Amino acid sequence: MPEHLFLARHGQTRWNLEHRLQGQLDSPLTEDGIRQAQSVAERVADRGITTVCFSPLGRARHTAAIIADRIGADLIEVPDLADLDHGEMAGLTWDEIDQRFPRAREDRAANRYGWAFPGGESYAQARGRARRALSSCGWASTGVPLLVSHEMLGRLLRAHLRGLDAHSALSLRHPQDVVFEIDRGTERML
């Protein structure tokens, strides 16, 4: 696992604007999302990044390609960086979820970390993928890597790198157009 890395979230998508859960489905980057990826690339241009590891989902792949092209880094797809699997709720808004799964919010609130999306996964399950992704990126990179992933998985990556518990992991936020530099468990935002 790399001790020094950068972590970015994909740029804004159409479904982000519509407040739809994306999970492992996909939605294209908006024009703002493309600008966000370009902005991230400018901020990390002189940081010694040699490898951009990215989620296989189109929104992360597109973001990573923009960044890697600007900084001259290698691109490596890491399947474990994919977003949380929202199962049957993927593509839905919370209003639609409330109609189709009337107890979901209540059940989720009772055990947010361990609750699994119907037909999908829980944060607890996804944290294992986050650990594997860090290991994969460490082995694949010859220098400092940048990981391009998603908000939910980004929370789990950051929590693991910082040694945070489940509750603290879920309280983290990772907006688009933000890059975190993490060095030996210390985090700073670029």
Characterization of the model:
The chain has 190 residues and is α/β, with parallel strands linked by helices. It has helices at residues 14-18, 31-44, 58-71, 94-100, 104-110, 123-140, 151-162, 166-171, and strands at residues 4-9, 49-54, 74-77, 144-149, 179-183, 186-189. The chain has a six-stranded mixed β-sheet with strand order 3-2-4-1-5-6, sandwiched between helices. A hairpin with a 2-residue loop joins strand 5 (179-183) and strand 6. 42% of the residues are buried. This is Broad specificity phosphatase PhoE. Keywords: Glycolysis, Isomerase. Pfam families: His_Phos_1 (PF00300). It comes from Microbacterium foliorum.
What secondary-structure arrangement, pairings included, does this model have?
Elements: E1 4-9, H1 14-18, H2 31-44, E2 49-54, H3 58-71, E3 74-77, H4 94-100, H5 104-110, H6 123-140, E4 144-149, H7 151-162, H8 166-171, E5 179-183, E6 186-189
Parallel strand pairs: 1-4, 2-3, 2-4
Antiparallel strand pairs: 1-5, 5-6
Helix pairs in contact: 2-3, 6-7
